[in-house]
Amino acid sequence: MSASWNFAKRPFRDDRPIYAATALLFLVGAVLLLVNVRLYSSYRRGVADVRAEIATLEGRQRAAEAKASAAKNALSSYKVSALADESRELARVVAERRFSWTGLLARLEHTLPSEVGLQRLQPQFDKDGITLDLQLVGRNREAVVPTLAALAKDPEFSGVQLHMESQPEGNTAEPFQFTVTSGYRPEAKVETAAHRKTGEKGSVAAKPAPRPAAPKPAPAPKPVTAPGSAAPRSGAPKSAAPKAPAPKRPEVRR
């Protein structure tokens, strides 16, 4: 008969499966951690790329909006300038159509001195009004001063300036020529007449009011007569005119 000897201080336990499972779990956790780290890093890189792309797109959007705004402003300014040019051209055409050559020539004939003649007349229509380019002729240089003074006194002409003088050479019979520019306002005469009418109306309104008429005398009271008595007649009694006899009708015999 054999005897078994047990010299262990505590009972035997086999912990190798537990260690193996722990090592395996640790290894799986490390692998999962590594995978999560890689996923997180790739996510961060993806988010950074998306943010950079979003910033690029926003910058392109702002640039496109700035270009669109500049294009709109340029188009609106071009439209406004084109419309202004068209309106100015239309106003110039209307002014040319409404321009009265007869009235201008009659005004120049009335204003210019008798010894000064008109050789060339060229009106220019612009946004400031009508500018006249007058080439005048006279006997000598002394005709310039009376001409400028006469044009300056007329309310329809403004900004009268002398530009050029041409003195004939030698003892030729050519007249003395000089060029004058002046602004022309046909409405100035109408405005002056309107101001004069307004002043006349004001002077008429300033006249003193007429005095009130004197009160009329009250009528005399009528005489009161008693009932049954004849009312007195004024003046002499009228004589009754004799009545003419009525004409007899002729008798008709059957």
Task: Describe the overall structure.
- By secondary structure, the chain is α+β, with helices and mostly antiparallel strands.
- It folds into two domains: 20-98; 101-205, 2-Layer Sandwich (Alpha-Beta Plaits), CATH 3.30.70.2830.
- 48% of the residues lie in helices and 15% in strands.
- The protein has four helices and four strands, in the order ααββαββα.
- The chain has a four-stranded antiparallel beta sheet with strand order 1-2-4-3.
- The model is unreliable at 200-210 and 223-241 (pLDDT under 50).
Q: Classify the secondary structure makeup into a structural class.
A: alpha+beta
Record field, number of beta strands:
4
CATH class of the largest domain: Alpha Beta
How many individual domains? 2
Count of individual helical segments:
4
- What would you say the CATH architecture of the largest domain is? 2-Layer Sandwich
Largest sheet geometry: 4 strands, antiparallel
Strand content: 15-25%
Strand order in the largest sheet: 1-2-4-3
CATH topology of the largest domain: Alpha-Beta Plaits
Tell me the radius of gyration: 61 Å
Q: So what's the oligomer here?
A: single chain
Mean pLDDT value: 75
